[in-house]
Each structure stands twice: as C-alpha cells, then as structure tokens.
UniProtKB/TrEMBL annotation:
Stated name of the protein: Phosphoribosylaminoimidazole-succinocarboxamide synthase
Domain SAICAR synthetase/ADE2 N-terminal: 6-235
Pathway: Purine metabolism; IMP biosynthesis via de novo pathway; 5-amino-1-(5-phospho-D-ribosyl)imidazole-4-carboxamide from 5-amino-1-(5-phospho-D-ribosyl)imidazole-4-carboxylate: step 1/2
Enzyme Commission no: 6.3.2.6
Record family assignment: Belongs to the SAICAR synthetase family.
Keywords for this protein: ATP-binding, Ligase, Nucleotide-binding, Purine biosynthesis
Lineage: Bacteria, Pseudomonadati, Pseudomonadota, Alphaproteobacteria, Sphingomonadales
Nucleotide-binding is among the record's keywords: yes
InterPro entries on file: SAICAR_synt/ADE2_N, SAICAR_synt_PurC, SAICAR_synth, SAICAR_synthetase, SAICAR_synthetase_CS
Pfam families in alphabetical order: SAICAR_synt
GO molecular function, one term: ATP binding
Length: 262
C-alpha cells in the first residue's frame, strides 16, 4: 500500500481513506500541541505508543459493550476504524480537579471531586474549543438530545470502567477527553465512541507518587514525556519488559526505509 488519499490532518493524527468503503486509516503522529496549538513539539515514539494504548482501551471497551469505531490495528502507527461523522463536541470527564477546572474555579489540583463532572467543549480550534452546555448543543443543532443522552450514558460507563482499569495498574484517572461520531446506516445513525484514548487526552497520575504520566509533562515542560507514555504501555503489558527501545528503534528503522505500512 503506498499513496493513499489523505482525508484530514489533525494535530496528532492523519486520516487516510481505508481499504473498503466506510473505513478509515488513523495514522498516529509524534506531533504534540498544547494550549490550543500555541505550544508545538514532537515526542519521538509517541505515535507508536498511543496507537497501542488506544487499541488496548478501545478493545476492552468493545468487550464491555461500548460501541466504538475501532476495527483493528494495522501496524505500529496505524489502525483501521469505521468512518463516522464526528460530533463537534469534546466530552471531558473529571474525577479529580486539575487543569482548567482548577484554574477557572480555584480548586486545588488533586482535590477529589465528590461526584464525576461531565463537561462539553465545542470542537473548533479557531475558537479555542470553548466550553458549552447542553443548551448550546441543542440550540445550534450540533447533536440531538437523544444523541447527547447516549453520549453522557456512554461517557459515565467508560469512566467507571477506565477508573478500574487504570487503578489495576497503579494509576489514578484524573480526567480525560472523549469524542463521539455518528455511524450512518442508510437514513439512520447511531452514536459510537471515536478518536483515541491515550495519555495525550487523559491525566494519569501514579497512584502512590502522583507522578504525572501524561501530556501534562509536555504542557508543563516537565521532561520525560516518552518515558511516561512508555510506562503506561508497560503497565498494561503492551511492551515486553526491557524491550521499549527496541520497539521504538524498529519504528525508526521502518520510517527510515519509508515503509510505514508493513
Ligand atoms: P483541561 O483541564 O485542560 O480542560 O483538560 C481536561 C482533559 O481533557 C485533560 O485530560 C486533557 C484533555 N484535553 C484534550 O484531550 N484536548 C484538549 O484540547 C483539551 C483542552 C483537553
Ligand atoms: N490538546 C491540546 C491540549 O491538551 C490543545 C491543542 O491541541 O491545542 O492542550
């Protein structure tokens, strides 16, 4: 497979036309952005790790009955997914105060929230993804009330499952972002989980040390970004002990030979 049609390039991924109608290939880049792309960089090997971590989580979510776009991982940087119409609403789920909620409401980072908070942001880079409510979503027709009911339902189930999943590997799931899409079947559509779930869009703190194992290392210039992502993958058993550099070196080797698809 060589020159496929590129459908879209985002900040961390490229989407290509898939091999069959209704499918898409998601290519995970090493590019990282923060603060609405005001800060840009690369985290060498991030794409490989996010591809694996997201595959792992989407597979497990599928097994508990959450409908997702994930079909299968194709290679180190690509996965085959179902084509959906992305709902332009980013769903943020918070269990512990951190990031923008701490800043906006003056709540000390690390404060456990007495209940899970669901927030919605309008997915529009030019506007800086402003926070919105159900009222805006309904008013501007970004999603129907039935769709948002399903979105909220799934977000809570996903959060419950993921809190346990991460707790099992000694990680606290502080908050994370989800995106959903419409899967069309003739005139009907249903909402399924789309995009990715990786340390790019989650806050993950080590349960005992509170060490940050996510993109805040990049946002806050803490260093050790790729090591943190590797640690998450390693705890899930996705990297055989001691083989981390081999996996990433192999990917570099492939890239150098210009063979991304094998
Ligand atoms: P926030 O505290 O900056 O609002 O972020 C909440 C969570 O959502 C955090 O885990 C990072 C994730 N997130 C994204 O994935 N993309 C974004 O554009 C933003 C703003 C947050
Ligand atoms: N996703 C980035 C962040 O979390 C924002 C951006 O991509 O611009 O800060």
């Amino acid at each position: 497979m060589s020159r496929r049609r590129q459908i879209y390039e985002g900040k961390a991924k490229i989407l290509y036309e898939g091999p069959e109608p209704g499918t898409i290939i998601q290519y995970f880049k090493d590019d990282a952005t923060a603060f609405n792309a005001q800060k840009k960089g690369t985290i060498s090997g991030k794409g490989v790790l996010n591809n694996r971590i997201s595959e792992h989580i989407f597979t497990l979510l599928g097994q508990i009955g959450i409908p997702t776009h994930f079909i299968r991982r194709l290679n180190m940087r690509e996965q085959l997914v179902r084509q959906v119409e992305i709902i332009p609403v980013e769903v943020v789920i918070r269990n512990v105060a951190a990031g923008s909620i701490s800043k906006r409401l003056g709540i000390e980072e690390g404060t456990a929230l007495p209940r899970t908070i669901l927030e919605y942001y309008y997915k529009d880079d030019a506007l800086g993804d402003p926070m919105i409510t159900d009222e805006h979503i309904a008013c501007f027709g970004w999603a129907s009330q039935e769709e948002m009911h399903d979105v909220a339902d799934m977000a809570i189930r996903i959060n419950d499952f993921m809190c346990g999943l991460f707790a099992g590997v000694g990680i606290r799931l502080i908050d994370f972002k989800l995106e959903f899409g419409r899967l069309w079947d003739g005139d009907y559509s249903r909402v399924i989980l789309a995009d990715e779930i990786s340390p790019d869009g989650c806050r993950l703190w080590d349960s005992t040390t509170n060490e940050k194992l996510d993109k805040d290392r990049f946002r806050q210039d803490l260093g050790g970004e790729v090591e943190a992502y590797q640690e998450v993958a390693r705890r899930f058993g996705l990297l055989p002990e001691g083989s981390v550099s081999t996996v990433l070196d192999l990917d570099e080797h492939r890239k150098a030979r210009g063979k991304k698809d094998s």
